[in-house]
Amino acid sequence: MNTDMKVLIVDDYSTMLRIIKNLLNQIGFTDIDQASDGKQALEKFKQANYGLVISDWNMEPMNGFEFLQAVRAGNHNNNVPFIMATAESKTENVIKAKEAGVSNYIIKPFNAETLKGKISSALAE
Amino acid sequence: MGDYSHDQVTKIISSVMDKVKFNKIKTAEDELLAVIAETENASAAIMDSCEVLQGIAVNCGNKDKAILEQVNKIFEACAFQDITGQRLLKVIKSFKNTDVIINQNSDSEQLENGPQLVGKGLSQDDIDKLLTGAK
Question: Mean pLDDT in chain B?
Fold first, then answer.
């Protein structure tokens, strides 16, 4: 897996940001930015060229689904692999995310192996 | 009591009850927020130690892969703080809508977002099938 890319991770829980960052480091990713909500993430996203985005769903003021929609509707890097990593496991939410163009969807809590598999699959698309 | 009408007495009792309920609910909210803050601090302390152990294990070479694996499991388990925090926030949100709940006119949607109870939401396998199925 090519790990030589910039990754943006988004979560309103500092604990989760740290866990994901640690797991990404183990996989081999070292260039990692982080944001604590969709709005902050969107600002960062517009200013850099990310190769992968991993975002939570439940955040304020902009949630991860709205962030996904904004990324896909934008003109900049709108095909970026986007993984939703969330505790939201309702069918309608997964369908909404899929329709909005999510690349993969991971249910929390997850382990390094699951994350690696989903990243690998998202980057291969 | 002879100096007050029935309506006045009802209003006074209702007012006192509202204050009691509000104070108790506020206290419960504060306690739950404190739980979230304390678990966040504890998780940070656990992860600090994990990072130190990861550094030591890496410097010791391949024979300490087993230690790294176990430290990683501790790291992954710290996700409990996010999950439990979201569950507690769902409860706090329901407290904040006390009027609606007391009137048995609850907007249950507010409790649907966030982590699902065991057996209620989709599993990772279900989600994988759902995502793959329509692609």
Answer: 79
Cβ distance A28 to A55 under 8 Å? Answer: no
pLDDT of residue B63: 60
What does the block give as tokens for B113?
A: 């977002």
Among A13, A14, A15, A63, the residue to mutate for chain B (most B Cβ within 10 A) = A15
A115/A58 Cα distance (integer angstroms): 19
Residue B5 phi, psi (nearest 5): -80, 165
Nearest by CB to A87, which of B47, B50, B115? B115
What pTM does this model have? 0.79
Low-confidence ranges of chain A (pLDDT < 70): none
pLDDT band at B120 (very low <50, low <70, confident <90, very high): confident
3-state DSSP call for residue A86? strand
- The sheet with strand A31-35 has its strands ordered as A31-35, A6-10, A52-55, A82-86, A104-107
Buried-state track A69-88, b at ≥16 Cβ within 10 A, e below 16: bbbeeeeeeeebbbbbbbbb
Q: What are phi and psi of A9, to 5 degrees?
A: -115, 140
Compare CB distances from B130 to A13, A16, A94 and report the shortest one's residue. Answer: A94
Give yes or no for residue B135 having a pLDDT over 50: no
DSSP structure class, residue A11: -
CB count in 10 Å sphere of residue A122 = 20
Residue B43 has pLDDT above 60, yes or no: yes
